[in-house]
Amino acid sequence: MSLDHIVINTLRNMDDAAAIFEDLGFCLTPRGHHSLGSINHLMLEPSAYLELVGVPQSGRQRQEVLDSPPGLNGLVFRSDDAPATHARLIAAGFDPQEPIILERPVEIEGETRQARFHNVRMRMEEFPAGRVYFCQHLTPDLVWRVEWLTHPNGFAGLAEIAIHSLDPEREARTYAMLAESAAEPSGNDWLIRDGGFTIRLSQHETPGFASATLLFDDLSDISRRASSTNGVEWQEGRTGKGAILVPSLDLRLQCRTA
After folding, report:
1. b/e map of 126-161 (b: 16 or more CB within 10 Å)?
2. Which of 20, 49, 86, 124 yields a CA-CA distance of 20 to 30 A from 96?
3. Confidence at residue 194, expressed as pLDDT on a 0 to 100 scale
4. How far apart are CA 178 and CA 41, in angstroms?
């Protein structure tokens, strides 16, 4: 398993969401406009990223985004070969959608270039928490730009996503098969680990992505910013831990030191 990114759905409220994350001290990439009718900003770390996704106020609007709830609503794994990933998933007994190309223009040093992605989406019937898919970056040099990798708040990485499930043991084994990894019990929860990233499933009557855990160099800056940003709440935790709450997005981001 290799995490590619985690998605936060802003629906039609991208301007407000982007302003909040900028006030929180994240470096946001310039707004992207996808060929399928969605818009985005990325918050990059060296190996993965957090993505704000939404739809424009007018013009083509991506139905998949509109049909999804606000907040955490996408877990995306890395693929080196989308058609091969699609074939592997079918062989493993999944029913993935056909691979699809996604594009968006990127301004690099005054030149417009096309960032291209080859995605394989899983079906909601198999993963009721939200959107799950694989992403092959065909132009990674247009995504991981050095000028977008430094964050004033010290954001350093993604550590975990917590998922609510009606049947965490069964669903953990499904995620483990998807990610070519193993599921293991941890108290009442089930975990799928790979390197520094963990998928945690816990029992809950309402399936969904519950929270994501972000890593920071330290929490002094992000706690100060979160405490003073309109529309945001900061929950102080034990030493080296805290949480950002954004009620307008029904969003909880756990924070801890790297």
Report:
1. ebebbbbbbbbbeeeebbbeeebeebebbbbbbbbb
2. 49
3. 84
4. 27
What's the DSSP call for residue 2? -
Q: At 130, is the secondary structure helix, strand, or coil?
A: coil
DSSP-assigned states of every residue in 230-250: TT-EEEE-STTEEEEEEGGGT
pLDDT at residue number 72: 98
pLDDT at 58 over 80: no
Say how many residues make up the chain: 258
- 46 pLDDT tier (thresholds 50, 70, 90): very high
Assigned CATH for 3-148: 3.10.180.10
Overall average pLDDT of the 31-51 stretch: 93
- The conformation of residue 70, written as its DSSP 8-state character, comes to S
Distance CA 41, CA 64 (A): 17
What's the N-to-C CA distance of the chain in angstroms?
Answer: 21
* pLDDT above 90: residue 39: yes
**How many other C-beta atoms are found inside a 10 Å radius of the C-beta of residue 123?**
11
Taking CA 4 as the corner, what is the angle to CA 226 and CA 167, rounded to the nearest 5 degrees? Answer: 85
Q: Compute the Cα dihedral for 9, 20, 48, 183 and give only its sign.
A: negative
Q: Of 148, 149, 156, 150, nearest to 256 (Cα)?
A: 156
Neighbours of 108 (CB within 10 A): 13
Average pLDDT of the chain to the nearest whole number: 95
Residue ranges of domains in the chain: 3-148, 155-257
Whole-prediction pTM value? 0.95
User: Which of 148, 151, 153 lies closest to 228 in space, CA to CA?
Assistant: 153
